Amino acid sequence: MQDRIWYFHEGSDLRAYEWMGAHPASLDSDRGYVLTVWAPAAAAVSAVGDFNRWDPAATPMDRIHPSGIWRVLVPEARRYDRYRFWIRPETGDPVMKSDPFAFHAETRPASASILYGPGSFPWTDDDAIRRIRQAGSVPSPLSIYEVHPGSFRRHADGHPLDYRELARELGRHVREMGFTHVEFLPVMEHPLDESWGYQVTGFFAPTSRFGTPDDFRFLVDHLHGLGIGVILDWVPAHFPRDGHGLARFDGSCLYEYADPRLGEHAEWGTLVFDYSRPEVRSFLLSSANYWIESFHADGLRVDAVSSMLYRDYGRTDWLPNEQGGRENLEAIRFLQQLCDSLRSRYPGLLLMAEESTTFPGVTHSTESGGLGFTHKWNMGW
User: Rounded to an integer, what distance in angstroms lies between the CA atom of residue 211 and that of residue 368?
Assistant: First the structure.
């Protein structure tokens, strides 16, 4: 555990989801969970949920590391219980927060996390992944069908298709049309339908609007069985201010920059990740890796890269970097770290930057000073 904590605080943990968040205490039972959270500015933290009638006094967590890692075993907890973290800051009122590493969440407008272990989904796509990613490792034609899961087709009563229904309907359509890949607008949990998923609160949880995490795995597995690659929109540029989310998580600016000249997108009403903080980098690296490892994604389309690259993006009042320039140097280093770590780990993985400016070297190697993406998303067809 001490090694994992060290890597998390060093900013290089690609699998923090293996020990942070909520995990079954035993693989042989759906009862009993270990909960872990990072809250360095907290004076006290408790686990609250269906298992203790949401009583902050019932299940206090132990601070197991001076850096602010809190943990507790909850023997009474069972799969599908709702839960949150009750956090009392050093100063100010207590807050009730959802788990940043939650694998599942309630359907909006409810917002609690849901206990849901990583599971053992019966994947059947090993050979398909190999073929799809071999094609991605060399220059080859791509024909990508971009789709919002909730808008593709609806039932007669207006309800969207669930993940398993989407697998059949979308798979048939995409195959008949001859597309090589499907690119999903963000499927990560989000509170606002109108955002189309681009204001994420659950960076490890497929939205429950359309089913469970295993239902989404079924969708990916089915598309792979048809020879169709899967690309996911992923949003490391910002996050919403919703009270249950990452904003001022432990009473301090933990995930976001403290200075509003860096930490706010006024136009979008969102907060910007603090890329200078190693733990934030571990959080985001782990999120990206999780969607590839646990959901077998063949690529990520990284959203709003332009807003990450420039400190003055969408701002009239902004803070220059230490060299006096407008580039966000720590965000650039994070993107390089992201691309290097994922491309070395998953040969043939597609990493696409939605970058709408003339920033140089988006798809050049990091050794030559580039960002390391495999593609730049076409913004001006």
Answer: 43
Per-range mean pLDDT, top range of 119-133, 256-270, 277-291: 277-291
45-61 tens-digit pLDDT: 999 999 999 999 999 99
Sheet holding 144-147, edge to edge: 144-147, 181-184, 229-234, 299-302, 350-353, 375-376
Expressed in percent and rounded to 5, the helix, strand and coil fractions of the chain are: 30, 25, 50
Query: What pLDDT is attached to residue 3?
Result: 87
* 76 noted as active-site residue: no
Question: pTM for the whole thing?
Answer: 0.95
Tell whether the model's pLDDT for residue 139 goes beyond 80: no
The per-residue b/e assignment along 322-340, b for 16 or more CB within 10 angstroms, e otherwise, is: eeeeeebebbbebbbbbbe
Q: Which of 99, 274, 298, 354 is catalytic?
A: 354
Residue 354 falls in the annotated catalytic set = yes
13, 279, 298, 303: the catalytic one is 303
